[in-house]
Design goal:
single chain; 180 residues; alpha+beta; four-stranded antiparallel beta sheet; globular
């Protein structure tokens, strides 16, 4: 399958099975995803693998962030979650927004690679993503921000992924105005 075909076929899977890629299966995909455009090769990102009880601890942190008494069950929707972290580097040339874009690019590319490898993936965020309880739960440093999680699992048989509206490329690709 070509890269164009893989991108055209990508869909978000809000429900996945308990199957998930092993760490050994993930490593080459992470290495490939890390090849995104990265001004000054800062590698301003890292990923955190959450499995088993990690997801329960995340549910407790989400509850704390939201002021709930019961742990959130949302992290239990997939047996593998991959937290996406922008890990900002000091640079006179590369601003934080550009470094965050690199981290987002890694996450999106990884989601494409996982989908192409046969896994169901959805990128989830929420109002609690950048709260203190979640920063603490993920062991984030002062120079880091949590961008959300890739929920990864098997694609259920007989199920279809979430619907996507077709992109009107003609309206999205414009020209620079002649006078500003």
């Amino acid at each position: 399958m070509s890269a164009l075909d893989a991108v055209r076929a990508r869909q978000s899977w809000s429900k996945v099975t308990e199957q998930a890629p092993t760490r050994e299966e993930l490593l080459p995909l992470v290495a490939a995803a890390g090849r995104v455009a990265d001004h000054s090769s800062l590698q301003p990102w890292r990923l955190i693998e959450l499995r088993g009880a990690d997801r329960e601890r995340l549910g407790a942190a989400i509850a704390k962030a939201q002021g709930d008494k019961k742990p959130s069950t949302k992290p239990l929707r997939a047996s593998l979650l991959i937290a996406v972290v922008a890990s900002f580097r000091k640079s006179d040339k590369v601003p934080h927004w550009e470094q965050e874009a690199v981290a987002s690019g890694v996450a999106h590319t990884l989601s494409l690679l996982l989908d192409d490898a046969g896994w169901g993936v959805i990128w989830r965020t929420g109002s609690h993503t950048r709260t203190k309880p979640l920063r603490k739960a993920h062991g984030l440093k002062k120079n880091e921000e949590l961008l959300g999680w890739l929920y990864v699992g098997g694609k259920p048989e007989g199920k279809t992924p979430g619907r996507r509206k077709p992109i009107d490329a003609e309206s999205m690709l414009t020209r620079m105005p002649e006078s500003g």
